[in-house]
């Protein structure tokens, strides 16, 4: 059981399914990324995260108290969030800059199309 609230307990009845799915995917990814960070510590680099196996994801899901991801989108989100956690917790790193760095250079395939604005930064 996740410590974070699922969509059913956050959104009112009638909320579009896509909103609930996105919320639950994010909750699962946050919990799993933290489980990966706890298990692998400083070894959870972007290069290492690219090599995670189905067994690694299943173990992280079990440790986080969630079901293993069944989509590439969720696995990519886990990798991205684990990268954000890695970069943002490096000693001597300014957190806002680290977050931006992780979002721009995050592991996994790019899911944000070129030209998309994130905050005040346009991805090229």
Q: Order of helices and strands, N to C?
A: HHHHHHEE
Order of strands, main sheet, comes to 1-2
Bulk shape: globular
Q: What would you call the structural class?
A: mainly alpha
Q: Give the distance, in angstroms, between the N- and C-terminal Cα atoms.
A: 39 Å
Mean of pLDDT: 79
Tell me the quaternary state: single chain
Report low-confidence residues grouped into runs of 5 or more: 107-113, 116-124
Number of helical segments with 4 or more residues: 6
Counting DSSP E segments of at least 2 residues, the number of strands comes to 2
Gyration radius from CA atoms, angstroms: 15 Å
Percent strand: under 5%
For the biggest sheet, the summary is:
2 strands, antiparallel
Indicate the percent of residues in helices: 55-70%
Written description of the protein model:
The structure is a single chain. The chain is mainly alpha-helical and 124 residues long. It is 58% helix and 3% strand. Strands 1-2 form a two-stranded antiparallel ribbon. The longest helix has 24 residues, at 17-40. 25% of the residues are buried. The model is unreliable at 107-113 and 116-124 (pLDDT under 50).
């Amino acid at each position: 059981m996740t410590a974070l609230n699922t969509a059913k307990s956050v959104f009112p009845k009638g909320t579009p399914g896509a909103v609930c799915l996105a919320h639950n995917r994010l909750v699962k990814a946050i919990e799993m990324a933290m489980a990966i960070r706890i298990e692998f510590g400083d070894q959870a680099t972007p290069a290492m995260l690219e090599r995670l196996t189905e067994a690694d994801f299943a173990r992280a899901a079990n440790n986080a108290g969630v079901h293993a991801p069944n989509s590439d989108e969720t696995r990519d989100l886990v990798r991205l969030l684990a990268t954000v956690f890695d970069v943002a917790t490096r000693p001597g790193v300014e957190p806002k800059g680290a977050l931006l760095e992780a979002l721009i250079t995050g592991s996994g395939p790019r899911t944000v199309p070129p030209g998309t604005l994130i905050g005040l930064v346009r991805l090229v």
